[in-house]
Amino acid sequence: MADFFKSREFRSVNEKYIEKIYITHYWRAVYYANQFLRDTELSREIAQDAFVSLWRKRESLDLSNNVEYYLLSTVRNKVFNHLRSKQRRANHIGMEIPVSDRLNLITLNDSSSERLLYSELSAILKSTLINMSPNIRETFLLSREEDLSYKEIAEKLGISTKTVEYRISKALIVLRVALKDYLPLMISFILLRDLG
Question: The pTM is what?
Fold first, then answer.
């Protein structure tokens, strides 16, 4: 994938933005695929394919809005197609795929409830972040979106690492309270995936 970012075609567009998306979301995409596949190499291939798909459709996509959702949806579809193809090959020779693969196919095929949950969670997260004090929000986003260490955040904002710890702790408390009603639903999705 590194070659992807060095190509002449890539440099002609918004290099920094796409590269940031790749750095921020690549491992999340791999982890998501691996929840269903339990094969890290295959999950990495699927994540890279999802980024290539993002690149190819860059002109028709609003990359400022829900990039992660687009990527994970693409990963989801690629995983589903892989498992469906695996099932067809197994059926063709009179075999069956493992129960975990069959359960994952069912889960991936019925995405409506998960899409609704994602949409609701996104709205709550945005609202909660907007309502946080600017200092706490900025510190939290530097940690989560830019993946900076507490020390790096402290240096960037000119505050102590203790203050960074306090602000992030405060942000997590606020988020936990805002998302408390969704915890059982999120656990059920995690458990379903972990059956694989």
Answer: 0.52
